[in-house]
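Moderator note: this is an archived Q&A kept for reference. The question asked for a predicted structure of one protein chain; the sequence and the answer are reproduced below.
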Amino acid sequence: MSDLFKKWRKIRPSISEQNLLFLLYNVNSLNNHIADIDVLVNNHSPQICILTEIGKAVMKRIPHFPDYNTILQEGTNAFGEIETIPEPTSVGAVYVPPDSTPPFQFFTKCSNKPFYIFGDFNAKHTDWGCEGNNGSGNQIVSWLELTGNEMIIPDKPTSRSLWGRCSTYESARQYRPPWPSHLVALAREVKALFIDKRSQLTQQKYESKRKWILKDQNIWNFVRPTFHSFSPPFRGLTVNSVIMKNPKDIVDTLANHYERHFAEPTPDMNNVIQQKYISIYDKIALLSNIPLDPIPINE
């Protein structure tokens, strides 16, 4: 079976017609529609597939389609030539964003020779069955009349999105009736039940993880050690801008410093405020020792 899998190869169905068949697809992110392209290729078996709006993510990893050679070019517009008899024919792929002007400067390069330009022009005009005209559609019609070129118009709409059917915002209620009140109430009840169950499951996972952390020494699987068995080398003690390196001098200096630091403070008897509080302290010292009740840990 493994040897069979190694030899297995997907073969496209062959067609008997000799006409050149193109497949144009404004794919709008190729990585999300590879399965759709595979179905179209199997059903129609085109010799040339032209894909626009493939997305920048495809440039990192180009997908492979069996029996097809992939030619990829960055940018919104791409042109190339194919070998046909009796002379080569130029083929272009164009994408025109909404409210933009078609790249007629590229079209003029193909004058006086056979060419085909495919793409998503985002152009609307009554000449090809649209309800109204837009700027891109008017410009293309004027260019066709000026140059004498012809347009291949599809017999049905090429866009199935709501954006392609209306150019202004319209409420969805015109296209989809609202739910009955009992279905709305049921949906809200199910949503509340789902949120409650999800909260319970999250709490259970948290408690289970907490018990596991408290067991044995599992907490060290989650926290990183803060203290390390390393200390920088002691190179000496700086006193009055002089580095002291003799160990005995260092010990004596530190001992004198901490002896003065933790010694009983010497009050300033010329300070009235200090005199006041020293008097209060002396009175408290004369009081008898009264045992205090032990303070519980919880307090």
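Archived answer notes: The two ends are 74 Å apart (CA to CA).
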